[in-house]
Amino acid sequence: MAWSFKIGTIGGTAIRVHVTFAILLAWIWLMHYRIGGTPAAIAGIAFVLAIFVCVVLHEFGHIAVARHFGVKTPDITLLPIGGVARLERMPEEPKEEFLIAIAGPLVNVAIAGILLLLLGTTVGMEQIQDIEDPQLGFLARLAGVNIFLVLFNLIPAFPMDGGRVLRAALASRMSWSRATQVAATIGQGLAFVFGFVGLFYNPLLIFIGIFVYLAATAEAQNAQIRDLSDSVLVGDVMITEFARLERSASIDEAIESLLATTQREFPVVDGAGHFMGLLTRDDIIRNLKDSGSATPVVQAMRQDVPTVHFRKRLEESLRLMQQANSPAVAVVDSHNHLVGLMTHENIGEMMMVRAAAAGGFRFGHLRRGKPDARI
């Protein structure tokens, strides 16, 4: 995720922290410092960090079950409102998604149960509900937070776990795409409820409402792409008109191509047209600043960019792009010659075409009528 930095790795999963989390810690420090000085500020920071340990354990609940079903999890990103575990692919069956989604809240149930056992009868449920009371003990407040995390995450709206539980339940009775659309619509409706209530009570609900609405919209769009990708070939929608860079080119020549086109990704090929790597606009600017315009592109290019055959399903291209967290996928023929590119931008354009064509649009029908000698 953009604007995040890695702080460590656990079991092959990178732990990343979004910069806004650091801003949250600074805000917590200042608020508590104004109330009770340095001791209060330290106590406030310690409590927030304890909460996010619980959030990390929550995310590893998802990860443990996901790995059981063969789904890899490259990283977790900690945000001020919780954590996000990135899955390399979506679960294949509704039952798998249900179990992966429910595993996180169950971890918080276990944490709250352990803390309540440790507290015994010294604290009642009425006190635990008041988690903002600084007079309440550390463990009691932490137990209350975990109970809140269970209830909050089970709200039936994306990106909360409840939204995925709802989709899994619906997908057992309808198509995955339709189930996602229904769950996303419910989530968007709840987002408006959060925003409206926030106007009169807690402004934080407005922020949560915006976040839920955007997440539900993104999930619906992803479902549309996944639904379409099953029936479309990469060669039907790939970019075929683009500038290439020879392996002998320099950053200076890359700049010329950058200014002469609207491209952001430039494939690097050898003399026979075989794909070697990819140079992005950011790569060009960074290398121009750090090492100058004479730098060879082969030193600046990315070599971990995936390739896909032009006759593969679009779904395979999307999977490779997501797994590698790559800005593009190089499309090749049977001889590994570069014949096209798949980028996030042209996938977005494909979805715009589909949305505008009310009766549907048959992608690639013109290309199939005019076979390209290169492929």
UniProtKB/TrEMBL annotation:
Zn(2+) binds at H58, H62, D161. The keyword Membrane applies. It comes from the Bacteria. Keywords: CBS domain, Cell membrane, Hydrolase, Membrane, Metal-binding, Metalloprotease, Protease, Repeat, Transmembrane, Transmembrane helix, Zinc. The active site is at E59. The chain crosses the membrane at residues 7-30, 36-57, 98-118, 138-158. It is found in: Cell membrane. InterPro entries: CBS_dom (IPR000644), CBS_dom_sf (IPR046342), Peptidase_M50 (IPR008915), UCP006404_Pept_M50_CBS (IPR016483). Its cofactor is Zn(2+). Residues 238-295, 301-358 form the CBS domain. One of its GO terms (molecular function) is metallopeptidase activity. Gene3D superfamilies: CBS-domain. The keyword NAD does not apply. Binds 1 zinc ion per subunit. This is Zinc metalloprotease.
